[in-house]
Hints:
The protein is of the alpha+beta class and 141 residues long. It contains two helices and four strands.
Amino acid sequence: MVITDASSASQGGICACQEGGGMDSEGFSLLEVMIALFILFVGLLGTAAMQISAIRGNATANQMSEASVIASGRAEMLLSLDFDAAALVDGSETVDGYGVSWTVKAGAGGANTRDITVTVVWGQGDDAHSFDYRFLKVKNI
């Protein structure tokens, strides 16, 4: 039974009431709640996937930064040597789990230059990465 309140009817409103005098409110059905929870769950899964991707990206960036610092340190050491020093030769070592190797070749500028490449390697198999740092050492004339 629908009862129209005279004051609300003049304003264009209708009051829907049950026979017992209470308001008609059924709430949410179980299906609506399940659909809402499913949508929430899919959103949370997407957020979790983004977090995992961000963590992996940060770890890779950290490793690249460490490799860069190691390569830069080895390059500074090689640049600080005298041009004709016996220690200015190819070599390799392991620093904090990173494989570091360097090659020293005659540069394109002839006898007065050395082309030096420092390579830092980390990871294994499909997860192997490397960082090359190449520079030219020139003999002071």
